[in-house]
Specification:
By secondary structure, this protein is mainly alpha-helical. It has 21 helices and no strands. α11 packs across α18. The longest helix is centred in the middle third of the chain and has 34 residues.
Length: about 425
């Protein structure tokens, strides 16, 4: 075995071993990189250089701003108003509250960009409400956590910014636009499945549709929805960069939460900012340590080796696309979203582009795949949050999730094999 092969084995083998031992991802990435550097006899100051280089990016400045915007809006009473708007739009259907849950997640996801925040915020309101109206508790929780993945696709999503930077400076505006239709496709898939369940189990309908109530709810929700318009229209229209739009959105979110909706006071704002610091520290440590890992992957030619290995299995583009999805789904079961993007994107993106999948389409595929991973054991963080909010055992929730996993995979296959689902809007506006 060559020295390079041994180095690759040390890097990837020690990383996977530490993941199985439930090491924090940042420690696993950093320590496996350290072991590899020591084996190769490289100077350890590379660690500091690569960590600084990893977070010294203007584009990455958007990440803390988007996270802060999402936490401010999520804590400022926005979710209740978006639920009311969704109720006026789809609450009249059979299984109306399930439909409201899904549509509200689409709206809220465009503000928070976080599946965990969506589950905690929307779920704490909708799950008790659905159970009280006669819905099964496991179904209510499964709908909530499944629909939370819409927020990962609907802009502004800080994970899309991380992918854009990792994949080599892809247009953030194009990625933002690429997420809208896949997010809507996922929502429609979940609504169809929920409707079938609702008819079969005779879940109740909501109030009749009323244009007056819809307009009233839309007016009330306008200030929340305008935050998304500021970001997306500003970036796509070239008015400002993603980072500038994120900074403006933070100021706007602060004004709306404190002065318009009055869901936060200044004491609450300081608590929210404290939560943001906790979240940001985790994200930035992951980005910096993953930068060392990525440096070693490139130095050891792992992306090329991985591409050759996959192509040697099959040269059929359909089979390669399915293999890419399978790899990402398996990674999603043992890792969180950000580290998968940071580590796997440089390896798998060349394989995807070799079969005609564009970096933007692959970005949407990666976000959706890793989003499904957030709902799967053993590491699915959103699965555990849903279990806590819905007061269910993990076993019951996973069993209830099986049909929703299938619905999400159907949406994933559409995104994979129908490029226009993710590329039509960017080609139209960019």
């Amino acid at each position: 075995m060559s020295a390079e092969s041994i180095a690759i084995l040390i890097l990837i083998g020690s990383f996977l071993f530490m993941i199985l031992l439930r090491f924090p991802i940042a420690y696993a990435v950093g320590l496996s990189s350290l072991f590899t550097l020591l084996y190769q006899g490289l100077p350890l100051n590379i660690i500091a250089q690569q960590m600084v280089k990893g977070i010294s990016s203007f584009s990455l400045m958007a990440v803390p701003f988007f996270i802060t915007m999402g936490v401010l809006m999520g804590s400022g009473g926005i979710s209740e108003k978006l639920i009311k708007l969704a109720n006026t739009l789809v609450g009249w259907m059979r299984g109306g509250l399930a439909m409201v849950n899904i549509v509200a997640s689409y709206f809220f996801g465009g503000i928070s960009g976080s599946a965990a925040a969506d589950t905690a915020s929307i779920g704490s309101i909708m799950i008790p409400m659905m159970v009280e109206q006669g819905y099964d508790d496991d179904f209510s929780t499964a709908v909530t956590i499944s629909s939370s993945c819409e927020g990962l696709l609907v802009p502004p999503s800080h994970n899309m910014v991380i992918y854009a930077t990792t994949a080599g400076g892809i247009s953030v505006g194009s990625l933002f636009l690429a997420g809208y239709l896949p997010g809507a496709l996922l929502a429609i898939s979940l609504m169809i499945g929920s409707y079938i369940f609702s008819v079969k189990r005779n879940y109740p309908k909501g109030e009749k549709f009323s244009i007056k109530n819809m307009i009233k709810a839309l007016v009330t929700s306008f200030w929340a929805l305008a935050a998304v318009l500021i970001v997306v229209i500003g970036v796509v229209g070239g008015v400002f960069t993603a980072t500038e739009s994120a900074a403006i959105a933070v100021i706007y979110s602060l004004i709306v939460s404190v002065f318009m909706y009055k869901g936060l006071d200044w004491k609450g704002v300081w608590k929210v900012l404290g939560k943001c610091v906790d979240t940001l520290s985790i994200v930035l440590i992951l980005i910096s340590t993953s930068s060392i890992f990525g440096y070693l992957l490139t130095r050891l030619h792992v992306p090329t080796l991985a591409a050759n290995a996959i192509i040697n299995v099959t040269d059929n583009p359909i089979m390669i696309a399915l293999l890419l999805n399978l790899i990402l789904l398996l990674l999603g079961m043992i890792m969180d979203m950000a580290p998968i993007i940071l580590i796997a994107a440089p390896i798998l993106l060349p394989v995807a582009t070799s079969i005609g999948i564009t970096p933007i389409q692959f970005g949407v595929m990666m976000i959706l795949n890793t989003g499904i991973g957030l709902l799967t054991p053993p590491v699915g963080s959103v699965l555990f949050i849903g279990s806590a909010v819905g007061k269910l055992s993990i076993e019951r929730l996973v069993k209830a999730m099986i049909p929703f996993y299938l619905l999400m995979i159907v949406a994933l296959l559409f995104v994979t094999f129908v490029p226009s689902v993710s590329l039509w809007l960017p080609s139209l506006f960019m």
